[in-house]
Model the fold of this input.
Amino acid sequence: SGIKMLCAWRLGGLELRAAALWPGGDLLPKNHIFSYTLDIFSGLQGLFGVPELSAPEGFRIAQENALRKADLLVERVCSLPPGPQTVLIFDELSDSLCRVADLADFVKIAHPERAFREAAEEACRSIGTMVEKLNTNVELYQSLQKLLADKKLVDSLDPETRRVAELFMFDFEISGIHLDEEKRKRAVDLNVKILDLSNTFLMGTNFPNKIEKHLLPEHIHRNFVVTGSHVIIDGLHAEAPDDLVREAAYKIFLYPNAGQLKCLEELLSNRDLLAKLVGYSTYSHRALQGTIAKNPETVMQFLEKLSDKLSERLFEVMKGMAMKLNPQNTLQFYCFYWPPRHSSKSHTPLYCPFFSLGACMEGLNILFTKLLGITLYAEQPAKGEVWCEDVRKLAVVHESEGLLGYIYCDFFQRADKPHQDCHFTIRGGRLKEDGEYQLPVVVLMLNLPHSSRNSPTLLTPGMMENLFHEMGHAMHSMLGRTRYQHVTGTRCPTDFAEVPSILMEYFANDYRVVTQFARHYQTGQSLPKNMVSRLCESKKVCAAADMQLQVFYATLDQIYHGKHPLRTSTTDILRETQEKFYGLPYVPNTAWQLRFSHLVGYGAKYYSYLMSRAVASMVWKECFQQDPFNRAAGERYRREMLAHGGGREPMLMVQGMLQKCPSVDDFVSALVSDLDPDFETFLMDSE
Done:
């Protein structure tokens, strides 16, 4: 939404310990680098070392300081003649607001204390209001426009500065600031309306449905919450072993809610109105500016070609499985296919003892040292620096360049903690006026079990892969060396942002990497090769169906954000798209789109995950498959892809890495070839 213009808000005093313990006695490397004891935020206490944030009231001081600084910077940029300095001041303005907003964005959902969460939420609101004000500040807009209108000046800018100036301008224009006053007011109103509708829709996606008790067979009541005369259905229960439980949950949870339906229709039509008002033919055309795909036509070509290739191989597999499960009931098979992203429950007890958290962290350390010359050192946080005592702080140190940044690891389950694994930018990297580099700071949030008296924290294979995935985002943030924080690390187009994290999944599934660290926590035995291979192959069994499902979601998202007015209802579009792109019949009186929460944060961009996977697959095959520890390939990866954040056009980064410009067909082939069974595994299993 437009109010995110200047803040790139994205859907985290130091005495050193000789050795840092992860709960359960696992060691991270001994920290002998005493020169890195300087505090990153120049204060000794308070969250993330920010002195003011030792108490919730500190958020008010931090936000007031940021707003004061913002006013001074606006005054300064408006009084200067246009030049490279204009972009620097814009970025400093963005940085001063983001440093409070990004930190508050994290604290408002993750801090265990309510007072901190509420103070952070208030800070987000006040910075948001300031950003809205800046979005409609004509004088501020003109200072940037004068620069971009002067061809001679633009030609004299280096490519990164020019790109950042254009990105700021692009964000400005979604607020309609370049339009006449009446249209500008309409754009502002639409932005506010879209924000409200987005929040309402998002809340509705999780809202439970209820049904009268007597309408459900009594023996399945115990699978749900029962209150009085009603049964409450709060999800799809896709993991339930009983067909009937899954069928009931599917039909009831997805039963259409009239209010939610109206909210979605209004959200889509308001997005379309805003896009048209600011000069785009559809919302999708606006959303895809600056991405790898560039436009909706390329996205649809990618999805259709991928769907054709997948359905060839999927039809036989699905038919066979559906018959085996229950030939009478395709619905129960359909419900069976809504599992969480990583579901390898059958393997869990066998594999977990080999994946203690300490072993996995050691594995990451070995990989980063060999590939990039980087080591993760554990540091003792100062009192008040972290929000929970089990949060670990890692210094990311390069063998010759020194300290690159900090990662705070909030890895363990606790009450009221959100259940998603994610990466938060707390402070972006940028080159400061005094020539020093502002070091990036991020948080990785996971939901791992605590260690017990008898064992350290043990990860399932899915958790291990997620840890590697999130660490891919963190390294993108740590290794970005952009001049501007507006394009730091993961602040890049959505279809490129997942490339570094998905690439890490390829490392996590490679035996040569896994064998470096996977040791049984009791016996020290290495994980046998055939167990790693079998795990990888078992994932491929469901991977084609899962990919087809992603194609269906992504296509639905494109149609909803394409030409308006929509030619029919959102539910009719769902039915048609599902039958064409997923091959299983639509279940009458259901409306899955009303639970599709990604329509808010990833409107017109849901395809991004598939596109990023295709790029990651190509990078893996071209550069790392032969030798996952190849230092020259690691350095090239850093130089061509990670270092630029969002400061270079994504396709140029991909080209620099692959030494060729990939086509849509190349992307499709990369994804499909990942599904091929590995002949070597079958040979090993038959021995």
Summary: The chain has 26 helices and twelve strands. The two ends are 57 Å apart (CA to CA). Residues 1-43, 330-345, 680-687 have pLDDT under 50 and may be disordered. The domain at 348-548+606-685 is CATH 1.10.1370.40 (Neurolysin; domain 3).
